[in-house]
């Protein structure tokens, strides 16, 4: 799987926009945009990207949530330019073809990706977990929680528990420099009451350039 952040270096306020393609640009691979942002410069970058001979530049778009900085270019510019299949959790976004639900599987690049509903930042927020490379596209889901005295909705805590049970080697956020990477496994404790506590930053012994920014949900008895 190859990942390019099409908004790197932009001066426009926008989400990150990731173009995900297969490692070998095979015909069966799905060239995928994760979010579309609001910077028109992405069109030129898509058109110049290596996406495979005889293939659509963009086969599909997955919107992580409906906020304007993530979805503005969709209606109608992305639709008209590339005619992709468009996926999102919310049925209220214009030009959505397929509404996804928690646990749905899609082909992204050359991998199988699982949709994880993560209501917290917004009610329609999702993460996209690529199983083979253990890569998580997080959108604006708050995986870094800086306070230990906050309370969170049960659905959000359950979503974090699901993510914590997975092996996650790289996190591509909706804003900021990707990737935030972690090879540390995170555990969830099952008690009553809800609270959250972040893991401390730590170096991966196998890769000194890698730091953990992942969140471990805890519960107060």
* CATH class annotation: Alpha Beta
Order of helices and strands: EEEHEHHEEEEEEHEEEEEE
How many DSSP helices? 4
Specify the helix fraction band: 10-25%
**How many domain units?**
1
Number of strands: 16
Report Rg.
Answer: 17 Å
Characterize the structure shown.
The structure is a single chain. The protein has a single domain (2-143, 168-185), classed as Ribonuclease Z/Hydroxyacylglutathione hydrolase-like (Metallo-beta-lactamase, Chain A, 4-Layer Sandwich). 14% of the residues lie in helices and 28% in strands. The longest helix has 11 residues, at 154-164. The strands form 4 sheets. Strands 1-2-3-4-5-6 form a 6-stranded mixed beta sheet, with no helix packed on it. Strands 7-8-9-10-11-12 form a 6-stranded mixed beta sheet. The protein is of the alpha/beta class and 221 residues long. It has helices at 41-48, 68-71, 74-82, 154-164; strands at residues 2-5, 18-21, 32-34, 60-62, 85-88, 98-99, 105-108, 111-117, 126-130, 135-139, 170-173, 180-181, 195-198, 203-204, 207-211, 215-218.
């Amino acid at each position: 799987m190859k990942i390019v952040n099409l908004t790197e270096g932009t001066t426009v306020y926008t989400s990150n926009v990731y173009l995900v393609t297969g490692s070998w640009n095979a015909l069966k691979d799905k060239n995928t945009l994760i979010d579309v942002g609001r910077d028109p410069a992405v069109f030129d970058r898509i058109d110049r990207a290596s996406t495979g001979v005889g293939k659509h530049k963009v086969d599909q778009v997955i919107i992580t949530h409906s906020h304007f900085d993530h979805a503005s270019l969709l209606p109608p510019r992305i639709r008209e330019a590339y005619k992709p299949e468009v996926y999102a959790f919310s049925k209220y976004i214009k030009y959505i073809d397929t509404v996804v639900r928690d646990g749905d599987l899609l082909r992204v690049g050359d991998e199988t990706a699982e949709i994880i509903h993560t209501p917290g930042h917004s009610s329609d927020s999702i993460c996209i977990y690529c199983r083979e490379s253990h890569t998580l596209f997080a959108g604006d889901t708050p995986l870094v929680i800086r306070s230990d005295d906050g309370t969170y909705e049960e659905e959000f805590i359950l979503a974090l528990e699901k993510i914590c049970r997975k092996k996650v080697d790289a996190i591509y956020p909706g804003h900021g420099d990707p990737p935030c990477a972690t090879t540390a496994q995170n555990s969830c404790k099952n008690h009553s009451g809800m609270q959250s506590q972040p893991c401390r930053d730590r170096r991966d012994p196998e890769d000194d350039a890698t730091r953990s920014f992942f969140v471990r949900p805890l519960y107060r008895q």
